[in-house]
TrEMBL record:
It comes from the Bacteria. GO terms for molecular function: ADP binding. This is Tetratricopeptide repeat protein. Residues 24-64 are annotated as: Disordered. Gene3D superfamilies: P-loop containing nucleotide triphosphate hydrolases, Tetratricopeptide repeat domain.
Length: 642
């Protein structure tokens, strides 16, 4: 059962230590409902990948720094919080991992505090690493990036070939084996997202920023609550941003700080506006701020509250000024509000219609000069295929920007943002060379691509190829729900997406769920397509495979034995799928305890493989390998005739 480009699942030979996995995948060139007879079989690429080096033997590369950017120069009023952080992380007794969380409103400066601390104390650590932690997917990606950074100078091939799951697990092993590091998990949404990682670490320092104030106590973490700036600190920040002569106007500085609620994000943007805009004075800005229509900021979303209203006031003025200078910049900001907040490759925006890269760069520079976005230049040790310059937008700026658009405008911008991502996704998601681009685009694509987008198929293929099976399951569930809602529960495309959802569940480690999903799907496929349809046979084949992987080797053997005559009758004795079924029958026969029968079945299969596919075909070599293996098992089990 395969849509164009969809894979039809795995036909597993069983014991991975001895029997190399065979995979059935479509060519990607066929129409929506491809017959299983068009499927080919090949080795799982994991058998050819180089292993990562032993984690305990890998040192920290000299000069490696995992911070996302340099800290802000204007940073005041946070010395007590910095001191508290240092006391907790440096002076807390105990030998285990020391963790601390910074809690506060959006826009209050949690991430900046963490960045300032990490930068000031970077010499105290062997390694400092920053992870965007908005979701479990991003946490795994951040850990995988750490593994790649640590190993790229030792074995670049292994680092690039490792899947996200493998690399993330390796990074945890490295952290567990080495002391003297600081890892920052920025913007954690749920305690449960980081708890499994903290449980596996035995030493080192972990710093967490979060808006959530529950769930930390049972991890022995008492969060430091970051409050709004004190009024003196707020006016000092404004004075430093604005500069003379207005920096001496204490009354006006105090009034502006009061208007903006002492919120660092709003203060920074107001200061940047005054400093950046010709002939703008502090007094004039206050007058403009009072004239901002209340309807533009009076209504706040539940997540933003008062802070969102404050930011909306400031953003309204910035919008008006920036639109006068360069309307394209506002168009850019509206698009950026649709993506994930952090680290969008700037090159994505280069293909925006009716623009060129130079105009895009000028618009982004203007937004950055007004502190509405943050631009991060590419590192000097850029990995081939990784995006160069990155752009980030504060979550509160995104929320306010979208809130001020009409529903039609929001839909238009989300559609335009999705089209840009779709155009940027490489068309070869299964190849290692494409993985850096997919890794960078994944969070943004998930934000903007609708469930029916062909880009979601590409993302699922990338996630499967790179080993992030749990995320592949999530996206495939979205695709499945969409096909059911739009095409109906028994449409061939729906059957395909359900089949593939079961496959990714199995690959994610839940063989029982894969087996049960396919077992429930089989009678529908038989009714819609017929008992002898190639796709029906593929479903039966997959049920047998996942039954074996779920631990019932005898049942898998019996299911393959029942399937083989139908394969031979419908598709022919020499068809590659028939040979795969014979191969798996032999494997599960051995796994069920009959090594002699497994040996004999492989011995009978080998000359057919050689005749049909050639002596040097990978599948022929696999059969020869497994024949030798089961021969050894059988001879070890049989009594000595002497």
């Amino acid at each position: 059962m395969s849509s164009a480009g969809d894979n039809t699942g795995i036909s597993s030979t069983g014991d991975q230590a001895r029997n190399i996995q065979l995979q059935a995948k479509s060519s990607g060139q066929s129409p929506m409902h491809q017959a299983a007879g068009d499927l080919s079989i090949h080795h799982d690429s994991s058998s050819l990948r180089r292993p990562l080096p032993h984690a305990e033997s890998v040192p920290v590369p000299a000069g490696m720094n995992g911070l996302p950017r340099r800290p802000a120069a204007a940073f005041v009023g946070r010395d007590p919080a910095l001191t508290a952080l240092h006391q907790v992380l440096e002076d807390k007794p105990g030998t285990g991992v020391i963790s601390q969380a910074v809690l506060g409103l959006g826009g209050v400066g949690k991430s900046e505090l963490a960045l300032q601390y990490a930068h000031r104390h970077r010499q105290d650590y062997e390694l400092v690493w920053w992870i965007d932690a908005d979701s479990p997917d991003l946490i795994r990606t951040g850990l995988a990036a750490l593994a790649q950074a640590l190993t790229c100078g030792i074995d670049s091939v292994a680092a690039e070939q490792a899947t996200v799951e493998e690399a993330a697990a390796w990074a945890l092993s490295w952290l567990a084996a080495h002391p003297g590091w600081l890892v920052i998990f920025d913007n954690v949404e749920e305690v449960a997202d980081v708890e499994p990682y903290l449980a596996r670490l035995v030493h080192g320092h972990v710093l967490i920023t979060t808006r959530r104030d529950i769930g930390w106590q049972h991890l022995d973490i008492t969060p430091i609550r970051l409050e709004l700036l004190s009024r003196p600190a707020a006016t000092t920040l404004l004075a430093g941003l604005i500069g003379p002569p207005d920096s001496a106007n204490a009354r006006a500085l105090n009034e502006l700080a009061e208007q903006l609620g002492d919120l660092p994000l709003a203060l920074t943007q107001a200061g940047a506006y005054i400093a950046r805009t010709p002939r703008m004075t502090l007094t004039r800005y206050l007058e403009l701020l009072k004239d901002v229509p209340a309807r533009l900021y009076a209504t706040a979303t539940p997540a933003g509250g008062d802070t969102e209203r404050v930011v909306a006031k400031v953003l309204t003025l910035s919008h008006a000024r920036i639109h006068e200078i360069n309307p394209l910049a506002i168009r850019m900001l509206n698009l950026l509000a649709c993506y994930a907040p952090d680290n969008l490759p700037c090159s994505i925006l280069d293909t925006l219609p009716d623009t060129d890269p130079l105009q895009v760069g000028e618009a982004l520079a203007l937004l950055a000069s007004y502190s509405l976005i943050t631009l991060t230049p590419s590192p000097t040790d850029l990995t081939p295929g990784e995006p160069e310059d990155l752009v980030s937008v504060h979550r509160l700026i995104q929320a306010v920007t979208l809130h001020q658009l009409t529903p039609d405008q929001r839909d238009h911008n989300r559609h335009a943002a999705a089209e840009l991502i779709l155009a940027a996704l490489p068309d070869n998601p299964g190849t290692i060379d494409a993985w850096p681009a997919y890794r960078a685009l994944l969070p943004h694509a998930r934000n903007v691509l609708p469930p029916g987008s062909p880009g979601l198929y590409l993302l699922v293929e990338y996630l499967g190829a790179s080993g992030d099976y749990s995320t592949a399951v999530q996206l495939q569930q979205d695709r499945c729900a969409h096909t059911v809602a739009t095409l109906g529960a028994e449409h061939p495309a729906t059957l395909t997406t359900r089949h593939n959802l079961a496959y990714w569940m199995g690959e994610a480690g839940d063989a029982e769920a894969a087996r049960d999903q396919l077992t429930a799907l089989l009678p529908i496929v038989e009714r819609v397509l017929g008992a002898d349809h190639p796709d029906t046979l593929t479903a039966r084949h997959e049920i047998a495979s996942w039954t074996g992987n779920a631990g019932d080797a005898a049942a898998a053997r019996d299911q393959y034995a029942a399937l083989l005559p139908t394969r031979q009758r419908v598709q022919g004795a020499d068809h590659p799928n028939t040979l795969t079924t014979r191969h798996n029958l032999a494997s599960w026969t051995g796994e069920a305890g009959d090594a002699t029968a497994a040996r004999d079945q492989y011995a009978a299969l080998l000359p057919i493989r050689e005749r049909v596919q050639g002596a040097d075909h990978p599948n022929t070599l696999t059969t020869r390998h497994n024949l030798a293996s089961w021969t050894g098992e059988a001879e070890g089990m049989e009594p000595d005739s002497g």
